[in-house]
Specification:
The complex is a heterodimer of chains A (about 575) and B (about 350). Chain A is α/β, with parallel strands linked by helices. Chain A has 21 helices and twelve strands. Chain A folds into four domains: about 10-185 and about 520-560, NAD(P)-binding Rossmann-like Domain (Rossmann fold, 3-Layer(aba) Sandwich), CATH 3.40.50; about 210-290, no CATH class; about 300-425, no CATH class; about 445-515. Chain B is an alpha+beta fold and about 350 residues long. Chain B folds into three domains: about 35-115 and about 200-245, NAD(P)-binding Rossmann-like Domain (Rossmann fold), CATH 3.40.50; about 125-195, Arc Repressor Mutant, subunit A; about 260-335, Structural Genomics Hypothetical 15.5 Kd Protein In mrcA-pckA Intergenic Region, Chain A. In chain B, the strands form three sheets. Chain B has a six-stranded mixed sheet with strand order 1-2-5-6-7-8, sandwiched between helices. Chain B has a five-stranded mixed sheet with strand order 9-13-12-10-11, with no helix packed on it. Chain B is globular, with a radius of gyration of 26 Å. The chains are: A alpha/beta (about 575), B alpha+beta (about 350). Chains A and B meet through helix 2, helix 3, helix 15, helix 21 and strand 12 of A and helix 1, helix 6, helix 7, helix 8 and strand 8 of B.
């Protein structure tokens, strides 16, 4: 054995060390996308906003904080606000001596100290101004965040970003209420990281190499040691053949699967220690999850229906590979093998041998999908690149136009049953149309949905009276009445001019006026944290974003998601 | 109003965060304590109105939980609510998190909800030693079997330091060798670190959300501006954003919080045998075994000793846990040393 080792070969880079905990969630490739991203934070102009609101107020600060810490590439703050006494009182991100200075500058200074890897800049203008003078300003951003923005400005921004195909995340913090709205035209997700992935063992329809492997094992003739160290997948397969001989088809329901389990138990040998063979126990437990893996998921069929037609050089790689996948499925009547198998009690050699059979097939299938993707691409200029195998540490690079890499194909084959596509709706369309909140069957008056109605009603109030309901202490009572009128107007608009489908309780209207658009830091922090993570999902295209509205009620510690 | 924040952390981080907070909010005085939570005793914790935790282990949570339960006062079997110190606890793991409000003695406590904590993953020894199949098995082999054998960093049985890159690198390289023997792929430096340090993935966003949820609850408990959470909330933003808040019920058999102490009055001149006889003969309890405090069992020879003179540390106010073969739980008594020789009958 060596004496004290020399300097470690694999000493990690500073960045890998710093981001270690999050790299375990989205990988080096996800981190690379995050570091290449540029996010814009904007709100309403200082002139139009009540004190404390605006993009560099508490809420904007909290969104940015949870983006800066994990290493977002660049942030741009669009805010013409100067620091006021109100900010000094409730915003931790501005320093005590900064009264009168640009608030966005204070925010950036504070945040960038937290992570020197991040670059930031301030544009000291209002969103309203930019929209009218530089409509293309927002084109280059990865995501734009609208913080406590006035409805009129928000709708203009929403239309602008929808045309530019730049995702928009709307955030609001209002007393104890939080609100997030995601606007994205299309997002394709390869790595959705489903919670419970069923193992891909192909027991009902083994591919040729797998069948050959299964057939090569003669359970009866194995020594006791080998018998108890055979991977359970072999055991299930062997007994499955017996069952099918007797019953004509695999076990279908709970009762049959239980009987199948007993059949396997009968095949167990007695170990000299008296204990049951672990691999047989595992086989019995695995019956429920291993016998239904051959159907093509309907989610994938739905994706095929969305394939652009015709496929051109401009078609993004995701759709190119999906087309290749479609052809593969038509030819082989099965999904590509994922190549991932769970651990099974077995001796090392048997396990590795079995694992390699699945892995080799996965590699063959992935090559086939790549070839099909190439064939589906009609134009000569649609290039495919067989890049040398990139090690995971280098990170995936999302190709543009028609560039498809082997590693991307492999990744998509591995996750074929969990590919997701989000087609969102625009905020402008939602706010200008009728909102369907449950069709009248759902009893909504006690659900957090009322806060959506109240936020929209508060916007109506604000556009008419130029202040938030309950903001001025001396007119809270009058505001309650006015707000109620706004609520009823909205509800009857949505109900098609007839009586509203549900009523908003007076209690809630009073509560809304009690809030008076106050910014409570912990509420802003909650919303900011959630929103930041949604932004990271949009940038890395991993995990599944909210689609498309969150209402958070800090008073009751509850939340609700809606698709509007 | 005094609140206590408990969390593990290096000195610099603790001081740093205190500095940011203390310069910006004049009315809030923050006192950092760099030490283990167990370094303080119950009486120190009694000074606080609310306790908020961001701890990194189940063990630590159970400890602070049992401290707060031990501070509870009962009068005639009824809980004195002014002795309740609310405990607000948050935890995160990747994109999952939870926040809860514990009112010791009134709501479910940490111990009541032990089964909510996910079990640690362990591998059987025969797999590690003889039939490794996964890269994790190879790393565990080096950690558990090879390291103690080779003692690569010399000295007197140098323990593995997960934060020392030299240690991790040695383990990584040996794991690669082990894996090569069995044709196992997938051993990486990152995986090695993860296994050795039991690393749980973490992100700023989930931490911010759970911290915010705890802060909101603290605000509600302190000001009554809205009703606090009742009493457990789970959060998961891996797929959309999902939260679920529910009332976790107090376990009637919880070993920590479901033992309402009973009063037991003895005279200082009574012997320990008298005490045991009282418990045996009392129609309420009919205890049949030895009583003990601090897990020291009473030897026969000391039974005749006077209570006040016995070296079991029995004095007024001490809690006795009386274990009885007839019941899985102990009965807790507060010992009251006074002149009358009565077992007071507690109110039900």
């Amino acid at each position: 054995m060596d004496s004290k080792p020399a300097t470690p070969l694999s000493e990690q880079s500073d960045k890998t060390k710093k981001y270690d905990r999050q790299l375990r969630l989205w990988g080096d490739h996800g981190q690379a996308l995050l570091e290449a991203a540029h996010v814009c934070l904007c709100g309403s102009s200082a002139a139009m906003s009540s004190q404390g609101l605006g993009s560099s107020g508490v809420l904007g600060a909290e969104v940015l904080r949870s983006l800066v810490l994990p290493g977002i590439g660049k942030v741009t703050v669009l805010d013409d606000a100067l620091v006021t006494q109100c900010d000094l009182d409730n915003n931790l991100f501005v320093s005590k001596d900064s009264l009168g200075k640009p608030r966005g500058e204070q925010l950036l200074q504070c945040l960038l100290e937290m992570n020197p890897d991040v670059r930031g800049s301030l544009v000291e203008q209002s969103t309203e101004g930019i929209l009218s003078t530089q409509p293309n300003f927002f084109d280059g951003f990865s995501v734009v965040v609208a913080v406590n923005m006035h409805e009129k400005t928000l709708l203009e921004l929403s239309e602008c970003l929808w045309r530019a195909k730049v995702p928009l995340v709307v955030v609001r913090s209002y007393g104890f209420i939080g609100y997030i709205r995601i606007q994205v035209e299309e997002l394709t997700i390869v790595e959705s990281h489903p919670e419970n992935e069923l193992p891909d063992l192909r027991l009902l329809d083994p591919f040729p190499a797998l069948k050959k492997y299964f057939d090569s094992v003669d359970l009866e003739s194995l020594s006791d040691k080998d018998h108890s160290h055979t991977p359970y997948v072999v055991i299930i397969y062997k007994f499955l053949q017996k069952w099918i001989e007797e019953h004509g088809r695999p076990p279908q329901n709970y009762k049959e699967k239980k009987m199948f389990g007993l059949m396997i138990r009968d095949g167990m040998r007695q170990k000299s220690s008296g204990e049951p063979e672990e691999n047989f126990e595992e086989a019995i437990k695995a019956i429920n999850t291993c016998l239904g893996d051959c159907r093509i998921p309907s989610s994938l069929e739905e994706l095929f229906a969305l394939l652009p037609s015709p496929i051109t050089p401009a078609t993004p790689p995701f759709w190119l590979v999906l087309a290749g996948l479609q052809t593969f499925l038509e030819e082989n009547k099965r999904l590509p093998v994922t190549g991932v198998v769970p651990d099974m009690t077995a001796d090392s050699a048997s396990y590795i041998e079995m694992q390699n059979i699945y892995r080799e097939q996965a590699a063959l299938d992935s090559e086939a999908v790549l070839r099909h993707a190439q064939d589906r691409c009609q134009q000569l200029s649609c290039r495919t690149s067989s890049l040398a195998e990139t090690r995971p540490a280098n990170g995936e690079v999302k190709g543009s136009g028609g560039l498809v890499s082997e590693s991307q194909v492999r990744l998509m084959c591995r996750h074929a049953s969990h590919l997701r596509v989000i087609h969102g709706t625009s905020v402008a369309a939602e706010y200008c149309g009728k909102v369907n909140l449950g069709g009248g069957e759902v009893e909504v008056s006690d659900s957090d949905v009322v806060w959506y109605v109240l936020l929209r009603a508060a916007d109506v109030f604000h556009s008419e009276f130029r202040c938030w309901p309950g903001y001025h202490d001396h007119q809270v009572e009058a505001d309650i009445v006015r707000l109620k009128v706004c609520v009823n107007r909205l509800l009857s608009e949505w109900g098609g001019g007839s009586a509203p489908v549900f009523t908003v309780k007076d209690d809630h209207i009073h509560e809304m006026c009690r809030y008076g658009a106050a910014q409570i830091h912990s509420v802003a922090s909650y919303v900011g944290g959630c929103a930041a993570h949604e932004i990271i999902k949009l940038i890395t295209a991993q995990y599944v974003p909210l689609n498309n509205t969150l209402i958070y009620n800090a008073a009751t510690a509850t939340s609700l998601t809606l698709t509007l | 109003m005094g609140g206590l924040l408990c969390y593990p952390g290096i000195l610099r981080r603790l001081e740093g965060s205190t500095c940011i907070l203390s310069t910006e909010v004049d009315s809030c005085k923050i006192t950092p304590h760099y030490c283990k939570i167990q370094d303080f005793d119950e009486s120190w914790y009694q000074q606080f109105h609310i306790i908020v935790c961001g701890l990194d282990s189940v063990v630590a949570r159970r400890w602070i939980n049992s401290v707060l339960v031990s501070l509870l006062q009962y009068t005639d079997g009824e809980l004195d609510q002014s002795s309740v110190i609310p405990l607000i606890d948050g935890g995160t793991e990747g994109f999952k998190g939870s926040a809860r409000v514990v009112l010791p003695g009134m709501t479910a406590c940490i111990e009541c909800t032990l089964d909510l904590f996910p079990p640690q993953i362990t591998f059987p020894m025969c797999t590690i030693a003889h039939t490794p199949r996964l890269p994790e098995h190879c790393i565990e082999y080096v950690k558990v079997l090879l390291w103690p054998k080779d003692n690569p960093f010399g000295g007197d049985e140098c323990a593995i330091d997960g934060d020392d890159p030299q240690h991790i690198s040695w383990i990584y390289e040996q794991s690669l060798k082990r894996a090569a023997e069995f044709n196992i792929t997938g051993v990486t430096y990152r995986l090695t670190q993860g296994v050795i340090k039991h690393i749980i993935p973490a992100v700023a966003s989930t931490n911010a959300v759970i911290a915010a949820a705890c802060a909101t609850e603290c605000l509600k408990v302190a000001t009554q501006v809205a009703h606090h959470m009742n009493n457990y909330c789970v959060f998961n933003d891996a797929d959309g954003i999902y939260t679920y808040t529910y009332e976790h019920e107090k376990k009637s058999t919880c070993l920590v919080c479901s033992q309402v102490p009973q009063e037991l009055s003895m005279a200082p001149t009574d012997s320990l045998q008298n005490l045991i006889d009282k418990l045996k003969d009392s129609p309420q309890y009919q205890v049949s075994v030895t009583a003990y405090t601090d897990n020291i069992s009473v030897k026969k020879i000391e039974l005749k000793a006077k209570i006040k003179k016995s070296n079991l540390g029995l004095s007024d106010g001490v809690q006795l846990a009386v274990a009885d073969v007839t019941s899985p739980n102990s009965i807790i008594f507060n010992l009251r040393l006074s002149l009358p020789m009565d077992v007071s009958s507690p109110l039900s």
